[in-house]
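RECORD TYPE: inverse folding
INPUT: structure tokens
STRUCTURE:
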């Protein structure tokens, strides 16, 4: 039998348990593909390499900046080269991370509606936290989140459950009232590792990875995500 997922409830000690939605960032809330591709290719040119296609760069995103650099620089890159590339990439991306990045359609309204209904929202991404916070603030949605955590916020990145476990504790949410929402297998695996529900979105960077790691539910827009979350009760 599927879980009943209500907006709020009462725990065994009589306290109010909040409903928590945890969002991935890139490919879920924001379309940052072009800024990431431009920053990776500026780094490759700086390192004496030819640019990659944008689609290739998009396929490398999702496991943090260190893995992005390893994939982007190629198997022959030394540790020293990777360190130099990462330093350049971070400096370049810091200056250009909002050049072309936008919210996906309906995102701001969906988040505002969820908060108005009393749901707790958070961001859990493998992007460095200072960039993540700057982006959500720059795009005008930072006010909707209880917490914004990045790939360097904890000792372990997604798909380790540490981030979800911390957010549940800080936001007063139980597992049955927590959902991880994202566009890739990494997000589904994170949810599974934390024993919470996994919702996917089809419009992001790596929806093809959801075939091997299917979420409990798949939405095609942020409006659909909000509608699903606001329905009461919601069953898996």
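DESIGNED SEQUENCE:
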């Amino acid at each position: 039998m599927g879980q009943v997922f209500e907006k709020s409830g009462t725990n065994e000690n009589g306290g109010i348990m909040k409903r928590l939605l945890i969002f991935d960032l890139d490919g879920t809330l924001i379309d940052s593909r072009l800024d990431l591709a431009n920053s990776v290719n500026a780094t490759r040119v700086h390192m004496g390499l030819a640019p990659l296609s944008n689609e290739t760069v998009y396929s490398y995103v999702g496991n943090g900046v260190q893995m992005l650099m390893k994939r982007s620089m190629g198997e022959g890159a030394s540790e020293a080269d990777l360190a130099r590339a990462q330093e350049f990439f971070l400096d370049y991306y810091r200056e250009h991370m909002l050049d072309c990045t936008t919210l996906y359609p309906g995102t701001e309204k969906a988040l505002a509606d969820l908060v108005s209904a009393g749901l707790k929202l958070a961001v859990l991404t493998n992007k460095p936290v200072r960039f993540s916070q700057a982006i959500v603030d720059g795009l005008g949605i930072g006010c909707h989140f209880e917490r914004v955590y990045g790939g360097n916020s904890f000792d372990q990145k997604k798909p380790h459950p540490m981030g979800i476990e911390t957010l549940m504790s800080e936001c007063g949410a139980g597992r049955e009232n927590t959902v991880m929402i994202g566009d890739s297998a990494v997000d589904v695996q994170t949810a599974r590792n934390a024993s919470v529900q996994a919702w996917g979105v089809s419009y992001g960077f790596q929806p093809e990875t959801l075939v091997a790691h299917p979420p409990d539910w798949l939405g095609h827009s942020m409006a659909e995500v909000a509608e699903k979350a606001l329905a009461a009760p919601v069953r898996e």
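NOTES: DSSP finds nine helices and twelve strands in the chain.
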